[in-house]
């Protein structure tokens, strides 16, 4: 997991966050061992900004991978940074409920959770079965 946190910390430095001043990095490992990273990319039209997790997921899908095995997210926050609600749903699209998610702060704090605990009661394809 240390390599994943290091990848998230490295890509975080490339974040484009002039509006919030809050740089975030995310890295994920796929089931076949590849690592993809992403950072937040803000926009002057604020709602158009994208989160670090979304960037990492986009890089993974663009490379032809679909199956997330592990995730790390890091920011310069007073406590380990939690993914926003939208990113929890995005992670759940490609990660099984028991996939480990490590939340980190630049100062060295770590907290470990999993996709199930980040998004209890997740909306899933089965909820559309009555169509
Ligand atoms: N941010 C992320 O990149 N990931 C998260 O899960 C939390 C929030 C970014 C979005 C925005 O650019 C900045 O942090 C402040 O909300």
Order of helices and strands: HEEHEHEEH
What is the tally of helical segments?
Answer: 4
What would you say the CATH architecture is? Answer: 3-Layer(aba) Sandwich
Radius of gyration over C-alpha positions, nearest whole angstrom = 14 Å
Instruction: Bin the strand percentage.
Output: 25-35%
End-to-end Cα distance, whole Å, is 41 Å
Q: Outline, from the CA principal axes?
A: globular
Physical arrangement of strands within the biggest beta sheet = 2-1-3-4-5
Low-confidence segments, ≥5 residues, pLDDT <50? none
**Helices and strands: which structural class?**
alpha+beta
Count the E strands.
5
Q: Helix coverage percent of residues?
A: 25-40%
The CATH class: Alpha Beta
Round the mean pLDDT to the nearest integer and report it.
Answer: 96
- Our count of domains comes out at 1
Biggest pleated sheet: 5 strands, mixed
Protein architecture, described:
This protein is of the alpha+beta class. The chain has a single domain, classed as 3-Layer(aba) Sandwich (Cytidine Deaminase, domain 2), CATH 3.40.140.10. The chain has four helices and five strands, in the order αββαβαββα. The chain has a five-stranded mixed sheet. The radius of gyration is 14 Å and the shape is globular. The mean pLDDT is 96. It binds tetrahydrodeoxyuridine. The site of tetrahydrodeoxyuridine has 13 residues, from helix 2.
């Amino acid at each position: 997991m240390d390599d994943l946190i290091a990848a998230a910390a490295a890509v975080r430095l490339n974040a484009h966050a002039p509006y919030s001043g809050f740089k975030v990095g995310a890295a994920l490992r796929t089931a076949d061992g590849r690592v993809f990273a992403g950072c937040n990319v803000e926009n002057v039209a604020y709602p158009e900004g994208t989160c670090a997790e979304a960037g990492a997921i986009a890089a993974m899908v663009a490379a032809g991978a679909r199956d997330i095995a592990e995730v790390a997210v890091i920011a310069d926050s007073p406590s380990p940074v939690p993914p926003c609600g939208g990113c929890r749903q995005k992670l759940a699209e490609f990660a099984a409920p028991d996939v480990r998610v490590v939340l980190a702060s630049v100062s060295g704090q770590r907290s470990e959770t999993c996709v199930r605990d980040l998004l209890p009661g997740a909306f899933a394809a089965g909820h559309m079965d009555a169509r």
